[in-house]
TrEMBL record:
Gene transcribed to yield this protein: murJ
Listed transmembrane segments: 51-70, 82-107, 127-145, 157-181, 193-216, 237-257, 277-300, 321-343, 355-377, 389-412, 418-439, 451-476, 488-512
Name this polypeptide is given: Murein biosynthesis integral membrane protein MurJ
Keywords in alphabetical order: Cell membrane, Cell shape, Membrane, Peptidoglycan synthesis, Transmembrane, Transmembrane helix
Subcellular location: Cell membrane
Record's bilayer topology term: Multi-pass membrane protein
Pfam families: MurJ (PF03023)
Highest taxon, organism lineage: Bacteria
Amino acid sequence: MSSIGRASALIGAGTLASRATGLLRSVVLVTALGAAASADSFNVANSLPNAIYMIVSTGILTAVIVPQIVKASRAEDGGRAFISKLFTLGTVILLVVAVVATAFAPLLVRLYAAKFTPAQIDLSTAFAYWCLPQIFFYGMYAMVGETLNARRIFGPYTWAPIVNNIVSIAGFGLFIVLFGSGQKAPTAWTPEMIALIGGSATLGIILQTVVLFLFWKRTGIRIGPDFRWRGMGLGHIGRLAGWTFLMVLVTQLAAIVQSQVQSTASADDQAGQTIALNAGLIFILPYSIIALSIGTPYFTRLSEHVAQDRFDDVPKDVSSSVRSISLLIVLSTAALVASAVPVSRLFTTSQSQAVDAAIVLLAYLVGLIPIGILFTVQRTFYAYNDTRTPFWFTAVQAAVAAALAAASLQLAPEFRTAGVALGQSISILVQVVIATILLRRTVGNLRVRVWMLSLGRYLVAAIPAGALGWLTFLLLGGVDGWTTSSQLLGAVGTVIIGAVVAVVYIAILAALRAPELAPVMSLVRRRIRR
């Protein structure tokens, strides 16, 4: 556990720092653009590189690189030849995709935001030309980062995004100085304004990738261009990546439906893409810090167990990972529910907007505990080189999410984005139930009863902790109090409410003598010291 703990602490600290600066980036962006039509135009354009990159690259990077490099490292050259071929192939694919996607920028914008006004479409397309080249650099960053993870070099991959956030914050801040802050009509944008916002976002991704390359020497692997792809097992890799490609594709098809529904709300000046994006950022923050920091070292170890045929060790590590992640995920859920309004004030420009955004955030939070469990379950399939099964249970999730998003069109415009978020959460819950049942067929006894017993203890502690946190919010003035009067005070109020929830939660778990509490708190203390 010591190696897992050290790696988790390093990943957690880096993820916390990168997510904190990412949150600050969002706050500065909202200050610069507001949270209405123009901000939605930029956020749609800036999300396109992620969407395209995920469709093309995730199958190779997430599901293939770590298990395959762990396996290739047992070769006499330590995996040098395989990694050289893999990087050459990946670079070629990413470059072609980035060029083609940029050429089709107008079509992509309409695909994700058909309900935008013509002015919003034009502005979003102009931003997309600046943002879509990020696909190449996102892909290179992920290839290097996953290789570092496979070689047990966990820190740089999580710390490098800080560079991206700092560059973006500087660029957005310069925009405020030169062009002022607040909402601007889509027709008011000049080429210089577009270049500064779009260029800052892309420059941040480029420098983030460059910084990660500086740590490559730690792998001890010297690589170079190698186009001799025959014999590297492309057939096997293709089968693994193919299923994950399809998995991400169906997820993105669902995302298109969700984005289209959100764009109808944006056209009516209601909570749209920007509110959804920032609420999703708050939602994913504890997942990123907790699930990634604890689960990533476990994923590498699970891959090693499978590569060495130590299958009896898999259920124990799966159970330990799920219970450790869930303890902190449940705490985060209770804290965010209690502080939903003040934390939403961070990325909104008024108290009324904060309430609207809080409704969206609460809808997302329904899925926080399930997605924390899903992290370990899904990656256990990847450790077994099984990408076909995750495709099928993700296809079900995408279908449910798309159907519920479409049903949200029946809601009033002000509730459509929240309806999409709730549909996403329900679909994740369905997904994790199906995935766990299927994983049990592969691994055997997963100790699910132990998970559920632990989750029961966590919920017993979380419900009164969350209630006291909400009471604290009301005592601080509630919706019309000082915690929603500004972004800074919203952050202060969030910290106070979160601290109350955490103290009560931990005290109740200690009274219940939860066996998971001591090792997790020890991990947290090590993380804080580092």
